Amino acid sequence: MSQRKGAAMAAVTSSKHHEDQEMMMELRRGPWMLEEDNLLMNYIACHGEGRWNLLARCSGLKRTGKSCRLRWLNYLKPDIKRGNLTPEEQLLILELHSKWGNRWSRIAQHLPGRTDNEIKNYWRTRVQKQARQLRVDANSAVFRDAVRCYWMPRLLEKMAATSSAHHHHGDLPPPPPPPLHPSHVAGMASSSSPIYGSHDHEQDPTSNAPAGSGGYYQRYPVDPSPSTSTTSGSTSAAALPPVPCFSELSWVDQYGYGPYGYTDLDGAGVSFDDSAALESLGLDGLDLGPADSNVYSDTTLLDYLNSTCAGGTMMTMMGGGGSVVHNSCGGAMGGGGDADYRPCLSSWRTDELVVQASSARKLGDHQHQWGGGGI
DNA sequence: AAATCCGACAACCGCATCGGA
DNA sequence: TTCCGATGCGGTTGTCGGATT
């Protein structure tokens, strides 16, 4: 645009306009060079961020202010986190996208070090790809159910596996737990929103997060003892709002975890009879039973968790509350609402997890594959 | 080994919003 | 109140490198 405009301004006679024209004619586009990055970083080091057009004029860069801003925010800024998204981050993106849609910058605010561009690209290249393969809209209820009932558990398992690997290999321990705020616990079980249902699209789920907690979606160790779990102690199952139903499918993944299932948004069960879509997802080996029985008997999320989480992965709901269920070991898992989701990992019972995983891998090729490196 | 395909991601573009004159 | 420049945001495109044929 600038180049086109520049070409149209041949009649400009003032020196200032002439300089502007010259600058616009020389505007660079495309990939940034090392020298340009250095120029930009040096300028910002001296003058700070902002006033991008001024920066573009004064820094010696032959770029637009927009381009400079983008380069800084998406690439050069010191706190940018490089590398693959962790399962925790992927889970958070899925959750927040379900609440806010394509509000990338808003989502990015809750993933420290990640940019909206990175999250957007992740969504388009990974998540939407799966939706295309399913031949469903990425915003459809069916797809959301798949995300909720398949990907999210998988990501939780990956997180548990990562934790287990750290435990067994002596890697760096997970970060220390963020400080808990009394309002978090007080807010638990105060809402009955489903994890993937209609949400208040304006309320910030982190609004109750303690100041300086460093991002609201973090790992922290959990006391494995049911009797000493303060988290579970304040939210007995009897006092909880209704647990979202979970339509169970008798199937386990290549790691031996399962069953996984689909459920509709109101938890009443869903019929999923699109065999082509199942095949495209790699679920064609799934035993769906008789054709007229594809609405599966509901089990509770609690049952599901007890059967799949191997005791090591839990999600604790803080802040806004929501449906919370406890797993068999005293943790709590919740879904829904504008809450503060904190997937809690511990190394407890990870030996069992590893045994399950290794035995599952021996089952061979008849179990389905979901692809390689995550979604 | 070459051609093609495809995923990942950096960068650009157009539009919306905000704030100051 | 209106105008206009600066900035932010989301959609889209371009490019590169690895995988596949």
TrEMBL record:
Q: Where is this region: Disordered?
A: 1-20, 162-237
InterPro entries per record: EOBI/EOBII-like_plant (IPR044676), Homeodomain-like_sf (IPR009057), Myb_dom (IPR017930), SANT/Myb (IPR001005)
Major localization class:
nucleus
Q: Name one GO molecular function term.
A: sequence-specific DNA binding
Record keywords, A-Z: DNA-binding, Nucleus, Repeat, Transcription, Transcription regulation
Q: Where does the Myb-like domain start and stop, copy by copy?
A: 24-76, 77-127
* Domain annotation HTH myb-type: ranges: 24-76, 77-131
Recorded protein name is Uncharacterized protein
Phylogenetic lineage: Eukaryota, Viridiplantae, Streptophyta, Embryophyta, Tracheophyta
